[in-house]
Amino acid sequence: MDARSPYGPKAEAGPPGMAAKLLGFCEELRGEGVAVGTSEILDAFAALGEVGWTSRADFREALAATIAKSQDDRRVFELLFDRYFFRTAEAEAVQRGVTEHAEGGPPAGDGERFDMDELSEAIREAIAAGDEDAMRDLARLAIAAFGRAEGSGVVGVDVQRIRRTLGLTAGSQPPGEDGGERPPIDRDQLTGFERHLRRELERDLIERTETLPPSRPLAELDRALPTSPTQDLAAVHRAVSQMKRRLATLGHEQRGRKKGRHVDVRRTMRASLETGGVPLRLRYRPKRPRRPEIYVLCDVSTSVTSASVFFLSVLHALHDSFRKLRSFVFIERISEVTEVFEHERDFAAIAQKISSEGGVADVSGYTDYGRVWLEFLTEISEELDPRSTVIVLGDARTNGREPHAEVFAQIAERAGRLFWLNPEPKLYWNYGDSVMAAYERHCDGAFECWTTKHLENFVDVVAGAAPAAE
Amino acid sequence: MAEGSVAEVKQSLAAVGYLADEPAALVSFLAQKLGKPVLVEGPAGVGKTELAKALSRASGRELVRLQCYEGLDEAKAMYEWNYRKQLLRIQAGGEAGWEDVQDDIFSTDFLLERPLMQAIASREPVVLLIDEIDKTDQEFEAMLLELLSDFQITIPELGRIEATTMPIVVLTSNDSRELTEALKRRCLYLWLDYPELEREMEIVRLHTPEISETLARKLVEVIRMVRGLDLKKPPSIAESIDWARTLLLLGAEDIDRETFTQSMSIIVKHRTDIDLVAERVGVKLAEPSSPAAG
Fold this sequence. Notes:
The structure holds 2 protein chains of 2 kinds. By secondary structure, chain A is an alpha/beta fold.
């Protein structure tokens, strides 16, 4: 092989069979939506050529550094890595008929029952020291001590049962028998030990049944972000700033059109100087791009409590991006909060101010969409024109009150465009007191929106870049 | 820097005062071995920039730093023609023909080197730090691509300038916007997070050797508690160190409620944050009068 090939020196293939496994792993990552390009795979091989294939930690880190290029990707990577290589190893073992207990039985399970207290103590030490290898060995011991016969056959149940038997709980610990103080167990560390338990139990199960459980794609839930409000906020801001860029360039496609152009007299005269005052070339006024004028109506009632934080953060981000934006919150009646957003920069303060000063729930605290439309129509709709965009954030649950869809239709008619973002999955629309269908007819688009992903989808549709992905 | 193994890289970084964890050491090692740029992401104040500085110290290379900001352009980042000097040359040229002058004024003598150019043209190997790349716009990122993958810069008037020595390139980002796939593809990725308790203790003690172990532990525990709150700006490692120094100056032997309130402003730097921290963390600390606190 030419050492100076355009792709750099040829990467080492590693132990036989490993390359294929690695490619299989990348394939699975792709299946989970991580963009792994060929160049990344080449890098991974190059990196492994440097750190060696034998140290588990190095192997993992080298792969992660070259393949997983964002925190989200890294999270998926971690979830898959364990599963894939564990499964690969087990599949190999099943294929070759290797079992651990073929000779000599389990490592220390010589028929004797273990002293549970001693074991528990050893595990505590291992957890406190964060010694992964020791934890793994102890997890095996614990399983052996617990006795396979007593297992329920369901891995999750057994894990918890063993943990309870050993008396391991997170938080501060009761003093030991000798009265000595024991260090508290961190919840994360305990979860780490549970992971070892789970894996060893799974391994055991595979060994006994000699088949692998079917491989499942990661559930959306597994890889959802560990939500902290600030993180969400950042993601929402990203999606909205993207929306801003799209909307800002929306009007531009009209620039080139000749129809309906106005002659710019001043510039035509100036240009005519070249030709001795004869206006040979007409100059036109440039078309002004469409200025998005956005009205956002946001439901903040209790039925959307979980979503309203998300929606408020959408509002917050919108306010950062658009100057011509008026926002309203509503429950029973509507209240303009544009000023609150303009004067407060801090999200927490805004949320608090809205709940204290909004004055939107004065009688029962239940949403009254019909009344909201009536109020919006009488107070605001004068200002609506074909250039304005109305966005409604709400679940369309009227609590059995009159929906006033015809009023909504009037609003829709006056506004240039009207979009509805519903925090409930589409499946729940029109069930119970949801009257989404009545409103949906008048919208230019109605979308489910409970993750930033949906928000991005909405942005795409609004900007006309791509059709809805659903 | 001895580049034999990951452990050696880690040691040499530690020798210059940077305690790297396993992933950081490994990626630094790979960056040198594979000659690939490293993209470091993570919250503010976990030592992303410091990593580049430490790499430069450990390897004895010069550090070339490009601080990114909104509106940063080619002229500020790569090179610029020194047009004043070019004008002077033309005026002073006298009888020389236009051809000569033209060739002359577009030579390297009239080139103002900016950080990226410096890093490429340097005869000695350097560490190039492109700090806070997320502050720039996407166009700038695209401009970097040639540099990052081939270590070369193309100047229309001069042609291609290739790096004579392989620089170690470190890009840092606070994740304030998503970087483009193309950029990420060319880099090794390292996520730096706040260090573990033990490691942060080591870091604090490395920088303030006079501090006692119990005080250091207490300090780091309090810092971690503060980071656990939802703050605008959680305390960084640098602030832990500052706080340790402050406590030494105050002559404190333990962090009780009073010392905490006095010196809190070192680690928390937002009015609303201060209220929150005082409310949540302050009360957990022992009263100053009570003996054997903690």
